[in-house]
Helix-turn-helix domain-containing protein
Amino acid sequence: MPSNVNPTVRRRRLGQELRRLREIKGMTAEEVAERLLVSQSKISRLENGRRSISQRDVRDLCGVYDVEDLRVVDSLMQMAKDSRQQGWWHAFGDIPYSVYIGLETDAESLRVYEPQVVPGLLQTRQYAEALINGALPEAPQTDIDKRVSVRSRRQDRINAPEQPLRLWAVIDESALRRLVGGKQVMIEQLERLVELSHLPHVTVQVLPFEMGAHPGINGQYAILEFPDAADSSVVYIEGVTSDLYLEKANDVQRYSVMYEHLRAQALNVEQTRHFIEKIAKDYTQLNSA
């Protein structure tokens, strides 16, 4: 369940408000940086919510923007204080994709396209462990265990008794055919997919090979939407050394249109269940051979 104070979301909201104040003042990020004797990149990171914001930063920026309403200043200062609190994921130590976890924790809905693997929120523990071991062959077992535990904790959003995350997953057939962890692990993973697809807030569709080229051919992405209208939707694209977060309305719209095409080309829900069950049956026959 989302926490009452999500530091990642607080940083985003605060950054958006600071950007709005700068634009009202008619100043560029470079001009603000020059006034405060800091780098322009720092101002950009503060505004996009990728960096913790101190109360001193807020005070200085409010001074530059001539914010005279003390209630506004106090509200921004409180948001800065909240943004420095730690989310549940910090208990696991340094997590490379902690920004994404913070967004996912507070999201109302998530649309994801996965071309290579089963989406993390739908993975069994055995599948997740085998997948992470394969993706990070040089990582120590402690790191593998930590990542698996974090992934398991993220799945609480799917199983929450109240206000669970609405998830729509389009999965390429290759993700179901890729043998991760052995045949028995795949059988249990596919059965889990079918089981979760019956939840009213989870929709699973498979994009079969026979559909040929499609709008998702360039790779994985996810679209997160939030319950508060003040929080803009985010497109998340995972990378090897860094991740990409797109928040501009035009970018989100473009990826949303692409997703509609993917959903239209994929098998419907019932066809998807039969398709997954057929692949699971194939694995079962191979396992008993």
Notes: The mean pLDDT is 88. The longest strand covers residues 166-172. Residues 269-288 form the longest helix (20 residues). The radius of gyration is 22 Å.
